[in-house]
Amino acid sequence: MSFSSNVKEELSEQLSSARHCQIAELAAIISFCGSVRITESDRFSIRIQTENISVSRKFFTLLRKTFKIDTEITVRRAHNQRNTRTYIVVVTDHEDTIRILQATKLLNQESEVEENLSLRHNVITQKHCCRRAFLRGAFLAAGSISDPNRFYHFEIVCATEQKAEQLRELICGFEIDAKVILRKKYYVVYVKEGSQIVELLGLMEAKVSLMELENVRILKEMRNTVNRKVNCETANINKTVHAAVKQVEDITYIRDTAGFASLSQGLGEIAELRLQYPEATLKELGMMLTPSVGKSGVNHRLRKLSGIAEELRGNKEESYYD
After folding, report:
1. What SS3 state is found at 289?
2. What whole-number distance in Å separates Cα of residue 176 and Cα of residue 168?
3. Cα gap 244→273, rounded to integer Å
4. What is the DSSP string of 8-24?
5. Would the pLDDT of 44 be above 80?
6. Closest Cα to residue 254, out of 240, 272, 266?
7. Closest among 45, 23, 25, 24 to 35, alpha carbons compared
8. Which ranges in the chain are annotated with CATH 3.10.28.10?
9. Mind listing the pLDDT tens digit for each residue in 121-176?
10. Are 12 and 1 in contact (CB under 8 A)?
11. pLDDT band at 321 (very low <50, low <70, confident <90, very high)
């Protein structure tokens, strides 16, 4: 199973004890993957259709717990390469359907079905716990989450822009930076920040999945920290090696032109040590001197040698053009 399927499996087993939260979750499931059918004789029925058995099972359980309605889950198998299974739950009784639609506020005052469930000033999302339950239902019905080992991405697909904006505002109410993007004919509410996806899983009460994602994040951060340190150390080593190579070149040039006899005692000593120990650090070179010299002192002498080498090269060029 994918990480997204595991999250939905866990959420399907999470049942709020409060009836108002159960209604909020039902409202989300119906709004995001359900439909209301009306016959010519004005008889209502509700139908949800999903490829995830966890969603159908959660809807079935909520109907039983909240409204004492028993129904059946029908399975259809598509004859294609994937052998996709579609799970369908239908509430056919008119009176039961009306009870559900009224409780979930999917019927307006004129007893007409609301295509876009308004979350602003709606009693089903007034409480903090109910907003969490609604978010859980929306994710179950139309959400997905990427494998955190690859990248971080949480999304819920909405049929209309109005519904997407309402859901985005609900998520932003938890101080999470949700955004909306148009993908083909659907509007997608998404979150990409790993820490905020962890927070979303916590809000929906997917505790096991939350811990799994956190473990992945910790490992990733450790790897990134190690890589940064290794890259930094590698850069420092390259810089040191490049400087040592340049120092050896300058000292060799002085030796082959003016000779070490032209140097002061201090410069001559460090020049000979650098040629003898080209891979030694400044600290190690300083420890070899008698008396020992600190890193800054060694660096100062090597800089002087580089300056002498540049002067000798300049003088040679002048004599060449003379």
Report:
1. coil
2. 9
3. 12
4. HHHHHT---SSHHHHHH
5. yes
6. 272
7. 45
8. 3-205
9. 678 888 999 999 999 999 999 999 999 988 899 999 999 999 999 999 999 999 99
10. no
11. very low
Q: Which residue from 36, 81, 29, 71 is spatially nearest to 54, judged by alpha carbons?
A: 29
| Opening angle at CA 29, ends 217 and 94, nearest 5 | 170
122 token code pair: 């709606």
Q: Minimal CA–CA distance to 95: which of 46, 47, 49?
A: 46
User: CA dist 3 to 55, 149, 150, 220, Å?
Assistant: 15, 10, 11, 17
Give the CATH number of domain 3-205.
3.10.28.10
Arithmetic mean of pLDDT over the chain: 87
Q: How does 204-227 read in b/e, with b if 16+ C-beta sit within 10 Å?
A: bbbeebbebbbebbeeeeeeeeee
Tokens, residue 195? 């820490």
If you average pLDDT over residues 170-193, what whole number do you get? 94
pLDDT above 50 for 221 = yes
- CB-CB contact of 208 with 14 (8 Å): no
What mean pLDDT is predicted for residues 12-34? Answer: 92
Structure tokens at 93: 């009784």
> Which residue type, as a one-letter code, is found at position 140?
L
